[in-house]
Amino acid sequence: MSLRCVCLTSALALTAGQAAAEMNFNRIASFPVVKNMAEGADTTRETSPEIIAATADGMTLVYTDSPLGMIGMVDITDPANPAPLGAMDVGGEPTSVGIVGTTAFVGVNTSESYTVPSGKLISVDIAGKVETGACDLGGQPDSVAIAPDGNFVSVAIENERDEDLNDGVLPQLPAGTLALVPLKDGALDCAGMKMASLTGLADVAPTDPEPEFVDINSLGETVVTLQENNHIAVVDKDGKVISHFSAGSVDLDGIDATDERGALVFTESQPGRLREPDAVKWVDENHFAPPTKATTRAVRVAGRSSTRTAP
């Protein structure tokens, strides 16, 4: 990023009239994350609040700050005046965060290189800003999601590629995987962790799946995107792949497809552009929506099939 400081922005949905009136999102405040730095710290350091989670009462935010190797906390009891609650070093690069009660669960990348990836899932007491548990994930984590019933955490172990090696062409081992980590009385149960293999599913680099993002529905099923593999999989709570399919492609017209030109010229096209799904979110027990690089669509998992329907 070119900016050394990025502001964490709060948004609140405000009703413009009666209950039936249209809902609008309006920015009501910004929070410069340097406010969470210790007194006397170098405030010119690069910061980047990325993934944000909120406590169940909606009064506290926890965000990841990868460049600083920290997570930060913000009090939004008064949303128009967010207040700093401090930050905590997590011993690596935080990649994602989820919250159960007063505990944050954070994926932390500790890799020494692309070929020797490593990472951990830690639990943090939000109020005390202290680590209360940690599980070795055996690879580089990306997205973290917590089951609606609070019984387990899903972690996408991406083991990401080196984009400077062979122009980033896959495969680049080791392969990624999906970790399912049980929670017992709100605490990490590392001994019960399951690893769900995602190799051999995709048409693109099947030996090197790179899980990107996860979400869990009320049935305990985890949907996971494999962005670089242009694939999506659904995994049950026991770690079994119950559905998977290609994200497909789309013909794009009237777009700007030239990088670093200094102007936007919408006269180009990309036939057969792979969708490359990034984030994903369950809409209900049978549908999820994966925003993609090429387009956005809804996917229906009827009978755990791969029937797809346009939104």
Explain what you see:
With 311 residues, this protein is an all-beta fold. The protein has a domain at 90-251: Neuraminidase (6 Propeller), CATH 2.120.10. It is built from no helices and 25 strands. The chain has strands at 7-15, 23-32, 49-54, 60-65, 70-75, 83-89, 93-100, 103-109, 119-125, 130-136, 141-146, 152-157, 177-184, 187-188, 194-196, 213-216, 222-226, 231-235, 241-246, 249-255, 268-274, 281-282, 287-289, 298-300, 308-309. The strands form seven sheets. Strands 11, 12, 13, 14 and 15 form a five-stranded antiparallel β-sheet that branches. A four-stranded antiparallel β-sheet has the order 3-4-5-6, with no helix packed on it. Strand 13 and strand 14 form a beta hairpin. It is globular, with a radius of gyration of 20 Å.
Give the uncertain stretches in residue-range form. Answer: 1-7, 9-20, 295-311
Number of strands: 25
For the terminal residues, how far apart are their CA atoms? 33 Å
Q: Describe the oligomeric state of these chains in a short phrase.
A: single chain
* CATH fold label of the domain at 90-251: Neuraminidase
> Main β-sheet: number of strands, strand sense, barrel status?
5 strands, antiparallel
CATH superfamily of the domain at 90-251, by name, is: TolB, C-terminal domain
Keywords: Signal
Organism: Ruegeria atlantica
Signal peptide: 1-21
InterPro entries: Mesenchyme-surface_protein, Quino_amine_DH_bsu, WD40/YVTN_repeat-like_dom_sf
Which key phrases capture this entry?
single chain; 311 residues; mainly beta; Neuraminidase; five-stranded antiparallel beta sheet; four-stranded antiparallel beta sheet; 25 strands; globular; disordered N terminus; disordered C terminus
